[in-house]
Design a protein that fits this description.
Elements lengths: L1 H17 L3 H18 L1 H24 L1
Helix pairs in contact: 1-2, 1-3, 2-3
Length: about 60
């Protein structure tokens, strides 16, 4: 279940990057979730780290303004 949540967050971050429709982000999140489940705990750590880094960068950019 946590893998699906992290997959959805990764898809959301990738969709925010290009700003187009949400179908691309949803599809990519689904694929990332499947890949993370196959990689085991390492995939979960990598996906969670990606989402955490993006959130950290966004927060830091917001503080500069």
């Amino acid at each position: 279940m946590i893998g699906r949540i992290v997959g959805a967050l990764v898809g959301r971050e990738l969709d925010r990057r290009d700003g187009s429709g949400g179908a691309k982000g949803a599809a990519f999140g689904y694929l990332v979730g499947g890949a993370m489940r196959r990689m085991g705990p390492l995939g979960l750590v990598l996906g969670g780290g990606y989402v955490a880094k993006k959130a950290y960068d966004r927060r830091k950019a917001r503080q500069r303004i």
